[in-house]
Amino acid sequence: MEDNNLEQEKIIEKENLKEQVKTGEIRYRLDQRSRIKGGILQFASLLVVVLLTSILTSTFVSRRIQEDSLVIDDNSSFSQMLRKSLESFETTFYDRTRIREVYNQLSVSLVGITSDPQNFYSESYEGVFTGVVMNTEGYILVPFGAVTGGSGEIYVRTERENDRIYQAEFIGGDIAIGLALIRVEEINLRPPKFSDSNTVKTAQSVIAMGNPFGDSDRGTVTFGVVATVNKAFSRVTVDNREVKVYAIETDAKINSGNNGGILVNMNGEVVGINSLSITDGLAQELSAAITSNEAMNITRSLINSGEELLPFLGVFGDIVTDLPEVGTGFYIQRIAPEGTADRAGLRPTDILISIDDIEVESASSIDEYIQSRKVGDVVKIRYLRIDEIIEVDATLYGTSVD
To answer: Confidence band (pLDDT; 50, 70, 90) for 400?
Structure first.
């Protein structure tokens, strides 16, 4: 009997134990699920907090930026330095890119000039010059020193791939201005575009380029700005007369590599012809280029040197009478740029009194007397400036021949 009771107690204990195990497993599982749910909830809560914090922070910072905490003062040294640096970078990048474009565009209109073809293949700039194609008829403007007075042979090398060297014909030259004109009829090169040099402004960017070897890969390019426009330089002719040459001063270096080449604006338009002979008389940091208007005038004159050119005084205005101590005179309202009167130093508001001691009586009397002379003749001009009578000798220049 007792054995049966013990057996039943053991069975009850086992059942109770099983029941406890089951209950513990259930509780464990419930606890595990609860922990997982709690972890997910904590992670979600943390994520929401992070997102809200980011949104609030970005909103706060953006508002602060828009207000004043991060605004850069336009007048601050840092702001000015930063702006100048950016502008300098942009300008330099643009200029360098544009310089390459302009040079590639215009180098085909520049040719090498020498009296000895072997000079084209040397490493020295001695004996080589740059010539500028002036029109489609083969006329080429060169430094006067390149033609040895027209007595020797003149050779021209172009950029063409066949590496042909041409022999040129001497047309004429002006030693005072320092330019000469040669011609190669069969050269068939296009001229660059010339701009009115009167439109050039101080501080304008310019490029001085040359191609003395007839090979653009060995050309010379310098860059700078215009220092002075239409500056008059006094030069002496072979017969010891003083004449004026108009040139542009620039800090773009003109040397043996681009002597005789072109000075161009950033649009690729020619505003001057590089002149080493005038540059040699300037301060070290400046160079000179004969104005494009001057170069075109000398080219026309030399091309038409075998034809009759009419001398032209280059003054426009009206006759005035009853002038104290003078009587009748010609009141100058406008002067033709780089003409006879301009080169002689006359300017608007001056009153022309006489030419070669012949008194001015009418506008037609001025024209009649001037046309009785020849281009290149020297005349004596008397004129009144305010209350001073001035007398000058002037070389007569011809009308432009288009």
So the answer is: very low
